[in-house]
Structure formats: structure tokens, C-alpha cells
Amino acid sequence: MPAPRNDAPVDYALVGGGVMSATLAILLTELDPDATIHVYERLVEPAQESSDPWRNAGTGHAALCELNYTPERADGSIDITKAIAVNEQFKASRELWDHLADSGALPDGTTFVSPVPHMTFVSGTEGVDYLRRRHEALAAHPNFADMVYTEDPEVVRDWAPLLAEGRLSSEPIAATRSDAGTDVDFGSLTRQLLEAAQARGVVVHTSVQASSVTRGPHGWKIRLRDNAWTPLGERRTAHARFVFVGAGGGALRLLQTTGIPEIKGFAGFPISGQFLRTFDPELVARHQAKVYGKAEVGAPPMSVPHLDTRVVDGRTALMFGPFAGFSLKFLAFGSPLDALKTIRPGNVLPLLAVARDNLDLVKYLVKELLATPAAKLRTLRKFFPDAERSRWTMITAGQRVQVIRPDARRTGVLQFGTEVITAADGSVAGLLGASPGASTAAFAMAQVIERCFGDEHPEWVGRLHEIMPSLARAGSGSRDPAKPAGPV
């Protein structure tokens, strides 16, 4: 077998062609316009995994409707800290997109963003009481001042007719609504960001599989194979002084190959999902909202049920779900061996600790796996009582890998969120986790830049805050990169 070809060294190598790498690439062109930047994607096109619009909720997570961002404290009060942070993080994304549109980097008119009201809907006395208190807590904050609350079934019918029709009049219900909500086609956004980056000199490689990232004499070596889906693909090695691993479910294994101590003890727990989808014009016309409910006991936050308006490539659909599943794959286009390949001596204890401490999640997943089509229809009818199964098609969404991070005792904690990992010397970084994910890409990539380059280039940090003023309120700031990064 011939020796791998050595590519010319570059300044920045970004592994993965999703929204995270696309966002980081365009930010780096703003801050370091003369740098050489290469993006490596294993599939034939970018944005085919979790950034694909049918593989994510596209909600534009702003904490307007997601109940998991507003937990109830032991004293009955509602904690809105996470909701405020997520709201500001999504604002940072909007500010970046507006800046790029104003500068001509993105086309006039943000075709990937559609205005769609965000609603929360609950039923039952306990649910109504919780939502009332949640609204009171949120409405006191200026970011949520426009949120409207109702317990009137006729108002709910006006907001979202499908929720009210066929529902028993004796059942207490409540809903909130914010007209500031959006639907985001992250696939279209990713492609537009990469096209803008390419116009500025960024090189995007597709059908290129990265197998490892290891230290070399002048930075990092990335082992690659062209034509990743064929056994005869040419092997080559790329060299970069900085590497970002934004490979979704493949990020954990690649970060492990770096050998940086910051990744030790981390593991992943994969959860797959399915959605019911309809393009039925009558149903689509009568439901113009994203409506989130309460998760079942033990369900992960990404499994909160929601009935969503989706706008993809100009076509509107409704989606309901997710229905959780389980696969050892870490990627939709991955291998059943993905999970096994990430097991290391240092993360065995965290994995076992999470299995021990999350029996409710295990029970929930077993229940979901055993659910019949009739059971899934009953779940839909909790939102849409008159739903007919014949009008809906089941589709498989993407894989999500929840982060298992070591705690102080080197056991493990299952974390629902996204986690930025940076090496102590700032020469390599990566992103793990799922929701809120794509919605907070600008915030997460600003964290990468601040932690890896903030000391050397403080002017870059200042420029980021000029472009995205919400960063200051979203929790972004320089920190000691030698310490494991916190969740996004």
C-alpha cells in the first residue's frame, strides 16, 4: 500500500461539514482573513447529519416554549436562569446572520429563517398550575415580556385549532404563545455559510473521512481517506496548527485520538428518534405554530413532545415527535460499532455510573422501543385529539449522542446539552452533545475562539462582541482553557 500523501500545512482545519464548522469557518474569515482554512466532511455533501432540516427540530431554540429550560425548584418557584441564557445564545446567532446579510456575505433576505409562533401547551390541574407560574416568572424578564398566557379553550382554538378540536371540555388546559418564535432550516443555513466562507477562500473537502488527529512536529496531523465510502480511497495526511472537531456523533472518538487530558473520562449515550410528518395541505393550513408539551418521567429533554410547523426549501409540513429509539450508532450514516469504539479505560466508570443513576431513562427507552403504532397515535392525540394515522408518515430523524462527563469523583453524569472541549494550549477544540445544539452555534463557536485565541488576540474577542452583543449576556467570556469547558 502506498504511503499517505502529505497535504500542505494549513492554519485551521475543521473536521465536519455541519452548522458548527460552517459557523466557525465564517467567523475565522472575519477575524483572520489571510489565514488558510480547510473543512473536511465525510459525506458527499455538507449538512447531511444533524444539520439536515429533517434530522433536527429546527426550532430556533430560544426558550420561548421549551419547558426543560425552566425547571421547578424544591420550593415551587421556577428557575429561569437557563431559559435566559439560551435565549441570549440564540440572539447571538441571529445577530451573526444579520451581520453577514448586511455585509453581503449571505443573500438578501434570510431564506433559512421563517417566523413561526412558539407555544407551550399543557393539560391537567398540575400542568396548568406549573405553566401559570412559569409564565409569571418569565414575563417579568424583558426577553419574554411579549409572551401571552391563557387558560381559555377558545383562545387556544384561535391560536392552534388542532389542539382544541375533539378535546373534552372538562379537561383543564393552558397555553403560552410568543410571536417572536422562528423555524430555522439549518441545512440551508449551513450550505449558505459554507458558500460564503468559500467565497472568502475557505476550501471545503467532501467525501473525506478523518480517522485520527494526533500531534506532529509542527501542529496536528489529521489522517484522511478520500472517497470515504470506497475501500480503495486514497490515504493522505493533513497538517494544521489548529484543529476543530465538529463531527457530531463522530467528535468523541476523534477527540480521544488527540490524547488531550481534557477529553479523558468523557463518554457518549446515543439516542435515535422518529417523527410523524405530514404535508397534508388542510392540516398544514390549520396549524401555524411550534407547540411543546411536558416530557414524560425519565424522558431526556430532547424527547419533549412537540407539534411543529416546519418550512424546508419553501415547503411547509407538520412534524410530531420525537419517539425515542436506541442504536449503537453515533451517526445516522454511522456504524453499529460507533459506541464500542469510544470505550476507554477512563470512561468505563462514568458509563456504569450513568447506567446506575438513570434507570428512569432506561425504562423510558424500553417503553418507547416497545411502543406500537397505535400507542404512538395515542401520544399524538394528546396534542391533536382528532388525528388520523393515515395522514401521517413516520420518518427517522438523526442520531443524538448525549454527553457523559466525569465528575469530581471520576464517576459520571449524563448531561443534556452541548459541551465545548478545548486543549490547555488552545490548539485543538471540539464540540460534544445535542440540544440546543445548532441554535446556539454562534455562541458555541465564539467560546471556541475566546478560549483558544483570546489571550493571543484579545482584539478578536472585542470584534466578536461587536458583531454579537448578546454574547456578553449569554455567558460568553474568556476562561482558563486548561479546565474542562462547561455546557452550552
From TrEMBL:
Catalytic activity, reaction form: (S)-malate + a quinone = a quinol + oxaloacetate
EC numbers, comma separated: 1.1.5.4
Keywords, sorted A to Z: FAD, Flavoprotein, Oxidoreductase, Tricarboxylic acid cycle
Broad EC category: oxidoreductase
Molecular function GO terms recorded: (S)-2-hydroxyglutarate dehydrogenase activity; L-malate dehydrogenase (quinone) activity
InterPro entries linked to this entry: FAD/NAD-bd_sf (IPR036188), MQO (IPR006231)
GO biological process terms held by the UniProt record: tricarboxylic acid cycle
Cofactor(s) needed for function: FAD
Pathway involvement of the protein, from the record: Carbohydrate metabolism; tricarboxylic acid cycle; oxaloacetate from (S)-malate (quinone route): step 1/1
HAMAP family, A to Z: MQO
PANTHER family, A to Z: L-2-HYDROXYGLUTARATE DEHYDROGENASE, MITOCHONDRIAL
Family: Belongs to the MQO family.
Protein name: Probable malate:quinone oxidoreductase
Lineage per the UniProt record: Bacteria, Bacillati, Actinomycetota, Actinomycetes, Micrococcales
